[in-house]
Amino acid sequence: MSVARAVFANTGYIIISNFLNKLISLFILFLLTHYLDVADFGRFSFVIFYITFFGIFTDLGLNAILVRECSRVPGMASKLLGNGIIIKLTYTLLSTLASYMTIVLLGYPSDIRLLVYIASIMLFISFRGIFFRQVFEVVFQARLKMKYPSAINVLNELLTLGVIVVIIAMQGTLIEIILAVSLANLPGFLAITYFSVKLVPPTFKIDWGLCWRMIKEALPVGISGLLESLVVLLPVIMLSKLADDSAVGHYSLAFRLASSLWIIPTAFMMSLFPFMSQYAQESSRKELKEACLSGLKYMTLLAIPVAVLVTSLAPPIIRLISGSAYEPAGIALQFLIWGTSLYFLNTVFFYTFIAANLQRRNLLAWGIISTCTLVSTIILIPYFDFKGAAIAVVLSLLAGFFTYVYTAIRMLLINPWRLFVKCFIAGIIMELIILFSKESHLIAGSIFAFGLYIFTIIFLKVLNKEDYAIIKGLYARPT
């Protein structure tokens, strides 16, 4: 199987499974937003965001380093995994303790603290974030066999849906909902652990030198991930302090919908990353550069029409999923979807820099993003409420995008501006067509606009012969 076919096949498994997960998750969101009032949904969302933030401390960049090293030196996989599991289990125990202490120090009421204590179970067994469980996916990611954990995660989400339906039918409380969402991950955790250990049995013999080297190399990636988590959590924290639970609920709904697409660039780069790591190891920067530009091209081609369409359809999307009570969240979604487009591109740069051993540059970019988020949320939320939080996230991701582009040009000689300009022109044409479409013909106008977008991309020669060969190869029967 060719590199391109392997990457797209593996990406396909991840995206399809996550698409199914998102469909199920949307139905869960539909049930929760109709069962809970806006304030209770705000409390639920705060707890999930809070625990997800502390999830970054269960990893601190270790998974990316494990995948990179298992791809480069497959013979050391058992030793790497054994030491990685020991490190991550230690991280997770400390993260759980830190989450307990922090929620008390921040002065949140006892009911919120109890919800956090219950939800901390997810730090160990949940698949919805960077948690301890992810260490058992390393071997599947390195070997491009993500169809197995992907299938387990879909079944995990189906179980969560079933449990939520039962809790709602029994008129359960918010505490019971949080407990159910947390414990529903246990069967999936046991399954992924079993298959991972069966495929590559880990060697639990501590090599202090190896552990220290992995921790040291992972730390810049981990801090970058920590800063990324701050971008997710800071608007929620600031809204809970400067606004109210309803504002948290409106923002959280819009953010959950927009960020549900973040799996697309992550899945694509997870599949491309093992090959990029090999290119960097072989000192073949030309192939690394081409891989990065290809990633940027495909993610840009996808991100722009998605952002344009969601911007146009945001109000009916919100009404369809959560009802008229959440309709104000539509404005936040219109901003945040453009933040998602920027996240698509930033993710490509993020993985490229790890493959090229430039982890510290990720630290710089996400340091700028998180600092901008902190400052802009403090400034904008008092004036624009949850809409200010959405604007702050977009501005911050834009600052990170410019940082990444500057660094890529300077250190890797990767200049994507011509690509971005061509795709942006196609996006503007698409947006203008939709704007001039009458509301009664919005769907038809959107379809026509997307077709014109594709035509413009072809006319501007964004795709080259290699891209057409890849597309053709995806439909060819493997030999």
Note down, in words, how this protein is organized.
The relative contact order is 0.11. By secondary structure, the protein is an all-alpha fold. The protein has one domain (3-415). Helix 11 crosses helix 16. The protein contains 19 helices and no strands.
The secondary-structure element order is: HHHHHHHHHHHHHHHHHHH
Mean model confidence by pLDDT: 85
Tally the structural domains: 1
The number of strands is 0
Tell me about the largest β-sheet.
Answer: none
Low-confidence stretches: 474-479
**Terminal residue distance:** 8 Å
Strand content: under 5%
Gross morphology: globular
Which percent bin holds the helix content? over 70%
Question: What is the helix tally?
Answer: 19
Rounded to an integer in angstroms, the radius of gyration calculated over CA atoms is 22 Å
Which structural class do you get from the secondary structure elements? mainly alpha
Keywords:
single chain, 0% strand, disordered C terminus, 479 residues, mainly alpha
